[in-house]
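dumping this here so i dont lose it
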């Protein structure tokens, strides 16, 4: 058993930092990790549901990301080996997960390992035990992964002389260094586009970068078969490069903007979009996403990192543009029915109700067709004696006619409706001013 575990650990090869974690993966901690099957045995969509359920049912998730390229050896990681073997665990040899844990669980901690065996071994054990003390036994999932490498492409080309190669290399470098200042970022070949009405704001621990100037070389890494794509934009700030790689996932015909990798001053961090599956920027394939009323914030889940957050405001984005020169149909973050519209509909409904009651009351009025004598009507007559200044007196006859209760009730309803109308008008004015 020990040899099998060591052989599995030897298979974990790790690369450089990119926008997301990659495999092979080792899961441990809960009984549910045994039910996840490798992607080679099942379809990617069939693996997404059990992974999503596993991430949501866990009380917390701790992701350990190794930065070194060396392979794991069981003899160099004895504490980690004992930790994994002490409970249920699973090994997934695939490069990518059908769905990532980010966005499915609120208690996620990402820990970057240094690459030194003894320090990493102690860090994994201490961090996982700390999570167990906080959330309890059997509810914390541990994931060991590596950072996803940039894809490498091999292509045949004709042999060229040394001068031609150096010339073409200089031309490509000069083209890559050419910069421009605008807020519309179109990938080469019109594969993807991101349009803003203002510059991006990258917030560091002690400063805020306003990203305006960028290079002309903007690329989109289309990994449609693997279910994701990356839009890479390189900015120039005070003579230093800052590269942003926006990652879009593609699931069941819809794309979602999940996270962005930031590469600045030899520091690389993955900033995760804040929100859930209903509030993250997403749209069906072939549609664009537009949002002008709300901001999208990408936060760093790693503690004590220099790169803190990225703010995306008033933007429109569409991956997989497929060579088109304009955006597709728009999915807007603002709903079709807003608070001012609801308030206006409520006021109009009440006004129409008052108008209907008034018209009905007017139609029910009729002129009298007969007149009753004073003898037939029931009247209360009181005779009072008043003394005049000259000493003479006179009789004053005062007649009280009984008032119908229905008239008083109708008057009360009218006063109440007028009061409600005034309140709704004030409320409507407040809503229009607030929004």
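and the seq i came up w/
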């Amino acid at each position: 058993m020990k040899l099998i575990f060591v052989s599995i650990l030897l298979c974990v090869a790790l690369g450089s930092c990119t926008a997301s974690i990659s495999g092979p993966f080792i899961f441990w901690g809960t009984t549910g990790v045994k039910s996840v099957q490798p992607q080679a045995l099942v379809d990617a969509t069939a693996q997404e549901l059990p992974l999503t359920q596993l991430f949501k049912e866990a009380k917390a998730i701790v992701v350990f990301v190794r930065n070194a390229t060396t392979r794991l050896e069981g003899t160099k990681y004895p504490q980690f080996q004992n930790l994994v073997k002490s409970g249920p665990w699973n090994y997934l040899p695939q490069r990518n997960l059908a769905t990532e844990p980010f966005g499915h669980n609120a208690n996620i901690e990402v820990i970057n390992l240094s690459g030194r065996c003894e320090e990493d071994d102690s860090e994994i054990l201490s961090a996982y035990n700390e999570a167990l003390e906080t959330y309890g036994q059997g509810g914390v999932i541990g994931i060991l992964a590596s950072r996803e490498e940039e894809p490498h492409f091999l292509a045949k080309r004709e042999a060229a002389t040394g001068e031609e190669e150096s010339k073409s290399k200089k031309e490509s470098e000069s083209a890559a260094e050419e910069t421009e200042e605008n807020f519309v970022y179109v990938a080469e070949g019109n594969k993807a586009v991101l349009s803003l009405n203002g510059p991006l704001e990258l917030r560091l621990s002690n400063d805020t970068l306003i990203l305006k100037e960028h290079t002309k070389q903007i690329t989109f890494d289309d990994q449609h078969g693997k279910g994701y794509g990356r839009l890479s934009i390189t900015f120039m700030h005070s003579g230093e490069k800052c590269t942003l790689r926006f990652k879009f996932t593609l699931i069941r015909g819809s794309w979602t903007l999940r996270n962005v990798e930031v590469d600045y001053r030899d520091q690389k961090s993955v900033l995760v979009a804040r929100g859930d599956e209903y509030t993250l920027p997403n749209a069906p394939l072939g549609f664009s996403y537009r949002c002008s009323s709300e901001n999208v914030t990408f936060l760093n889940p790693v503690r004590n990192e220099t790169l803190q957050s990225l703010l995306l405001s008033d933007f429109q984005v569409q991956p997989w543009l497929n060579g088109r020169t304009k955006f597709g149909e728009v999915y807007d973050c603002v709903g079709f029915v807003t608070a001012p519209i609801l308030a206006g509909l409520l006021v109009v409904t009440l006004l129409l109700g008052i108008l209907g009651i008034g018209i009905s009351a007017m139609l029910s009025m009729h002129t009298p067709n007969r007149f009753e004598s004073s003898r037939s009507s029931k009247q209360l007559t009181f005779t009072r004696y008043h003394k005049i200044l000259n000493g003479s007196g006179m009789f004053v006859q005062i007649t009280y006619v009984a008032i119908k209760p229905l008239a008083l009730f109708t008057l009360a309803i009218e006063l109440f409706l007028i009061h409600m109308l005034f309140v709704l008008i004030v409320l409507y004015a407040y809503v229009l001013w607030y929004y």
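The radius of gyration is 36 Å.
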